[in-house]
Write a structure and sequence with these properties.
single chain; about 425 residues; five-stranded antiparallel beta sheet; 17 helices
């Protein structure tokens, strides 16, 4: 008695598949062996197979990457998106270049390699111990037919989810799941509830597919085979088996391509497009930026106010320029000396420090020397700097009012000049 070379289970002479472990028996009866010996060309056709999938995959990837680069360019041009466009174009050109070595490799594999002996031929399926219905399912599902029909849990369906559905050519449920995932991903941009629902949906579908896929798929294949038989009833048994094999089986190339398109689509929608689509009105966003600047300004102003108060100096006016060069301008007075002057500080946000740049102290003394004609060259430079600061302070006060007016006219205008209320610092 023959035994399965994989699990050792007993086999009948006519068996071509082990019903215990699902392994295909590679033995071919003497009559089929003689046929292939007498027809070596037929043997070459059966045993050699051109691996066209790799070159085609690189071709498709090249087209996808280049088109993605073009789509990102059309959406909106920014520095980051320009870099992404360059990256995708480079990947696309690289993929197209790789078609040449991939084609050469496919030709070498075609000339050297042979098809796996685990795949049963159409004649082996027809001569097997399986019933006609099982033969149709065997041809449609392929080499894992017995494993899928015997195992209750599908590990590939559990881990790869909709990717495995496409791999097994069950496109409709895969497309529905992809649409639901994309919709939930878009919603998750605006609400945390959608994130929880998305995660729960993926987990639940993975568990359900793992538990139910094998049994559902066998039933699905049975219905498909019946439909094929009803449409092609004039075909003989071998032609019918060939048609089942063609309609069924797997499609790894499409699964890979759809997976890559899905990842790119999620990136374009979730990263590239959605940041430009905001549920918050533009003026609220601009106001938020202003409030952040005001908060930072007040933090440094409070520090200056505390130190001046310790020195018993009164601050009459204080504000910030929160543009590219972040500075603080203030007017202070010394009640005991009846002296008023202006001071300018530079904000070093990286270090979190303030640097005193210039004051108008002793400005009146320098002007008196200038009138008396006793001003030295060095004092003349100092006088010019202090007078420039005095002018800058006046311009700064005017800019605060202009900023306010521009914002009232155009709510998208971002204000940089900020005046801080002294009373708010005392509290």
């Amino acid at each position: 008695m023959r035994h399965c070379p994989n699990c050792g289970a007993p086999l009948q002479d006519q068996d071509r598949v082990c019903m215990n472990c699902g392994a295909f028996v590679d033995d071919i009866d003497a009559q089929e062996g003689k046929e292939t010996e007498n027809n070596p060309k037929e043997e070459m056709k059966q045993k050699r197979k051109f691996k066209w999938q790799i070159p085609v995959l690189f071709l498709i990837l090249g087209i996808i990457f280049i088109l993605t680069g073009r789509i990102i360019t059309i959406i909106k041009i920014t520095e980051e998106k320009e870099r992404l466009t360059t990256i995708f174009n480079t990947l696309g050109i690289g993929s197209l270049i790789l078609i040449i070595p991939a084609t050469i490799l496919a030709i070498i594999l075609f000339l050297v390699n042979k098809t796996s002996k685990k795949v049963m031929s159409d004649k082996e399926i027809l001569n097997s111990n399986a019933t006609p219905a099982e033969q149709r399912r065997m041809a449609y599902i392929g080499k894992n037919y017995v494993k899928m029909s015997k195992r209750g849990f599908s590990i590939p369906a559990f881990f790869f989810n909709w990717i495995y559905l496409i791999y097994r050519k069950t496109y409709l449920p895969a497309i529905l799941e992809i649409i639901i995932i994309i919709v939930l991903a878009i919603m998750s941009k605006y609400t945390t509830t959608a994130i929880i629902i998305l995660i729960a949906f993926i987990i639940v579908t993975s568990i359900l597919l793992g538990i139910k896929f094998n049994s559902w798929y066998v039933k699905h294949v049975t219905k498909k085979a019946k439909k094929i038989k009803n449409k092609k009833y004039r075909l003989n048994a071998e032609e019918f088996i060939k048609l089942c094999r063609k309609k069924g089986g797997t499609n790894p190339l499409l699964a890979i391509v759809i997976c890559i398109i899905f990842v790119i689509t999620m990136y374009i929608i979730y990263i590239a497009i959605l940041p430009d689509i905001t549920t918050t009105p533009k003026e609220e966003t601009v106001d938020t930026v202003y409030q952040e600047k005001r908060k930072l300004c007040k933090l440094y102003v409070q520090s200056i106010y505390n130190s001046y108060t310790k020195e018993k100096l009164a601050i009459n006016f204080i504000g910030c320029n929160m543009g590219k060069e972040q500075t603080i301008l203030l007017e202070t007075s010394n009640p005991t000396k009846e002296e008023t002057y202006i001071a300018k500080y530079e904000i070093n946000e990286k270090r979190g420090t303030l640097n005193l740049l210039e004051t108008t102290q002793e400005l009146e003394d320098l002007r008196q020397k200038q009138q008396a004609g006793t001003l030295t060259e060095e004092e003349s430079k100092t006088l010019n700097q202090k007078e420039a600061l005095e002018t800058e302070f006046t311009t700064f006060q005017n800019n605060i009012e202009e900023d306010k007016t521009k914002y009232e006219e155009d709510s998208s205008y971002v204000r940089n000049y900020i005046k801080i209320n002294i009373d708010s610092l005392e509290s």
